[in-house]
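step 4 of 6: structure.
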Amino acid sequence: MGIAVYVLAFGLLLIGVYALVAKKNIVRIIIGIAILGYAVNLLLVLVGYRHGGTPPILADGQTSADLAARSVDPLPQAMVLTSIVIGLSVTALAVALAIRLYDKYGTFDMNDIRNLRG
Amino acid sequence: MKGMSPIVRSIVGLIAGFVMLYGLYVVSTGHLGPGGGFAGGVIIMAGTVMLILAFGGDKARELMEERRCHVLQGAGALAFLVVALVGLWYGGFFVNFLPTGRVHHLHSGGAIAISDLAIAMSVAAGLIGIFLALIIGCRAAMFKKDK
Amino acid sequence: MTIEFFILMLIIFMIIAALIAVESIDLLSAVIAVGAAGFALSVIDLLAGAPDLAFPQVLVEVITLVLLIRMVMTRRDTSRQTSRDTLRTAVVLLAGSVFLVAVFFAAGGMGMSGGIPPFGQPVMGSAADTGVSTQYLTRCAEDTGAANTVMGILLDYRAYDTLGEATVIFVAILGGYVVLRRVGRKKDAKEVEPS
């Protein structure tokens, strides 16, 4: 089961790479970037997961050693937390670029844009 | 961009304040529970986006000019850097210079709460600004030209 | 066992949603399928003991949906359905299977040391623990006074990283402004007014 979870997360990563490489529509490429981000975040969270783990937040009256014995790994979560917001701003940047391209050329298709530029 | 119907407007007018308050709560208790600067900043931004979508572009421009967004975003990023530099005075970059306090009390965590506020301001203002630019398409120069 | 099963099902749901997003003909349904994948990810975060991540993931998902729908809805999709480029697809699938094989052999689930630890047993608690996570968890409360260890790491132990990420956000948003700016564009000034 553990292997299946990792392999499926990598499959999600592959779908993102496929959308990036094989698609010609700008919207699909932005979607591919978003899916890549999801897959990486998912993989990092799953690596830090512990069977029956609690969130890494100290409860009232709990000792730190007890928390360390039963909590999930907090380090990947700290990495992913910032990555989520960065993903939003990168999506906003990509959407801005796509809107400028559409205003200029009237299409989302990369082939058409390449032909029109000439 | 036009606003939505009066029903949506009045409901949003009632709710928006509470959304912002919840965002501030999440920001200020980031060191006690789930939340923190990034999550709280995005909550505040989502509340503002709700207002913008309900009331339309004109009202939004009265409430929040883009220039103000730029200033607030820069100020937030600068405040985070200032926290780091003040730590330099106490022995190193990003040294926690305030007393740590008692765990589970609001006055704990030292400079973490201040950093949370700075990050929330930077994230919220920056994302509101780019949302205004993307969705409303209001450019100061362009509207001057129209009039 | 049950939580792991839920996580597995949700990942399969994410994969189906991602496939719909990549392959569906209509752009609007593609964008909505991406939203479905993101919400499933936030539920996975919640189940895997990361409420810190589930919060921003839901909100970021809502904002991303609003942005993408706004971009797609008023603009007509004129792209043609081209025939599949077999070379690109073959390259992607080949590289992907190489990745998968590498992961399969690097995963500690095969009984090897190193690589990704087996699912559900992070490196943190194991005997060969040379990382810092246990130290962070044990000492965060007395070092920083923060009950939430993630925030303690993010803003105290590793605040350098956070400064870098704040810079990345700042620059990305600045790039968005610069791209959308019309102040310096005399020629484009009476271009299509954004709806």
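step 5 of 6: annotate
 - Helices of chain C lie at 2-23, 27-47, 51-73, 86-106, 133-144, 149-157, 159-180.
 - The interface with chain B takes residues 51-52, 54-56, 59-60, 62-63, 66-67, 70, 141-148, 150-152, 154-156, 159-160, 162-163, 166-167, 169-170, 173, 176-177, 180-183, 189, 193-195 of chain C (CB under 8 Å).
step 6 of 6: archive
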